[in-house]
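Please check what follows.
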Amino acid sequence: MVTQFLKIGVDGGGSKTELILVDPAGAIVARHTAAGTNPSLVGPELAGSTLRAALDELLAQSPSASDQIASTRLFMAGSPPFWRQFAESLQGFGEVVAADDSLPVVELATKGAPGLILHAGTGSFVAARAADGALHYAGGLGWKLGDPGSAFDVGRRGIARGLLELQGWLPPTPLAEALVRHAGLGDAAMITRLFYSADDANVRIGAFAPVVTDLAAQGCHPAQLVLVESITGLVELARGVTSRLFKNQLVTCGVSGALLNSAPAVHTLRSLVTTHTWPVGLCFIAEPPIEGVRRLLAKAR
């Protein structure tokens, strides 16, 4: 009889999906990275097929492990009902449970204690662990409905500002020059059509966010304004969560994601703590969400 003791953990987001296979001690036996699996972005069919293929690729690194999987935990962005149904259909991976992608970053931020976290990748959300241990989630509405502080929102705002510069309504700055390079086009009307017609427009728009943060770090004032405006929206959402759950008592607030941990974003967040009377102690998290997945797997029975 084969003993089942290995666990699989998945962090599925809009831009990428990370998978790990861990032993009982929590050590990583194998890992694999695949394309994004948010069904709101790529569609349910592609999201499911991408994850199935990624799970097969993970196990291919350790062929003997396929008979030793005790459980699989899916921490996924996008429709919870879709992922619950997917988990129920997955065979040969032990006990399969689907949960929200906020849980790993909450674990990194609070380590089981009360607190909250801001996370920004392609999308963004605020998640919190209340004093009674209950988990709460705010935002994460996706690119069509707006995720302030996310790569998509920063990219969208940066592109809009750059287009106005190209139209001649605002003074030209490095933001417009960067947009021309990013789009590969020099005309505002052509760039606008590109972002409205491309099948992967949301990805292209989100990919402009690192350009905006780099320009902000170099002192480009319009890029700095774009970043401040976008992050302020995320902080306003977080302030509401802090007020309702913690009655404005001082709590730890983790900050997760490369965008929010960039130098200009860190400066913006620290300023907003003071100017918005937001009672939190910021904790900038360098570890990726998959490390939070690993810790949750280690805690699971």
